Every structure is written in structure tokens, then in C-alpha cells.
Predict the structure.
Amino acid sequence: MSSGALAPVFTEYIPSEPEEGVLYISMQFGTAVHLCACGCKAKVVTPFGPDDWILTFDGTVTLRPSVGNGQQQCRSHYYIRRNHIDWLPKMSPAATAAASARDRAAHTAAATAPDAVAPASWARRLWERLRR
Ligand SMILES: [Zn+2]
């Protein structure tokens, strides 16, 4: 573990080569980017939104939910709480799979309009009737 803190920097454009120990926050693009707190230099992108991350600013920044780098080799997992890194146990492969399934479900639910599923259930009802 390198540093235990992240300094928030509000910026319009996220630099292509972010510095370690800095949490870049772009309100224009609704996202934050930082280099993995473990020091592995993986770029971690945390978009804001009800199904993504919630950023709280009270002079310091807090990011919810936790940052789980299960896709990275380090598998590090931590909270960013009032500019500080609160370490959590490393992501297990199972936890990573569960987290990405949950993300997919949340995004699919948000992206799917109710009428988009109607034809499928209508077709299944018809199929059910034809089978009898
Ligand atoms: Zn890392």
C-alpha cells in the first residue's frame, strides 16, 4: 500500500496521465478518476449516478459505494472516506462476479423500458396456449 489519502482535484478534463494520490473529479463529465490506491497504477474510473457512485463533498470527498478493483491484478478494495483510504479485504473472484452481475442488472433495469419486455411475454403466452 502506498498512500492512505487522496487529494480531490476538481477539473473539467481528466488528465491522460493522472498522478498518484489525486482524485480527479469532473462535474462536466460526471465522473471521477484516480490511480488505484494500492500503487499498482491502474486507472480507476468511477462514474457518478444512482446506479454508479455517489460523491459527497463537505470540504473533503467521500465516494460510495466502495471501490473494488476486482478487474485489476491487485484486486484491491477500499472506501474513499473524507479523502482517506479505508482498506477492505481484497476482492475475491466470486465477489467480483457478483458485483459485476449486480451492476449489469442495475444498468439493464434502467435501460429497459416496460414495453420492451411486453412482446416477449406475449409470445410466450401464445406459445404456452399452442402447446396445450
Ligand atoms: Zn491496485
